Amino acid sequence: MTHFRISEAAALIGVSDDTIRRWAADGLLQSAVDASGRQVVSGRSLAARSLALAPEADESSPIRRSARNRFTGIVTAVESSGLVAQVELQCGPNRVVSLMTAEALRELDLDVGSRATAIIKATNVVIETEKR
């Protein structure tokens, strides 16, 4: 079973180290002590907890989407040249870059500091991991 140190677990789901420790103390995460004497939490319990934190779909919204990958964050850069624009979002620890038309940029009224959500529909997603 995969285990993560407190700081790793916190970084993975975007909460503080103290939150992970509190959840472990409250029994919301399975925890143990590793061979070096550090507290670790199980990857399986961390995954379950992160799903519980995920925002639920707004059932009152009349809009339905086939795309399930949504990242809300803050616009950190906007560049527009001719017909094309590039917008960068910082969504927690993740950077998302979007290319769009300059017209779409104007219609969305995006500027550095704006809140925005990137909705991604991808049929080709590459997943990587470290060797165990």
TrEMBL record:
It comes from the Bacteria. Pfam families: MerR, TOBE. Residues 64-129 form the Mop domain. The keyword Metal-binding does not apply. Transmembrane segments: none annotated. One of its GO terms (molecular function) is DNA binding. Coiled coil: none annotated. One of its GO terms (biological process) is regulation of DNA-templated transcription. Keywords: Molybdenum. This is MerR family transcriptional regulator. It comes from Leucobacter triazinivorans.
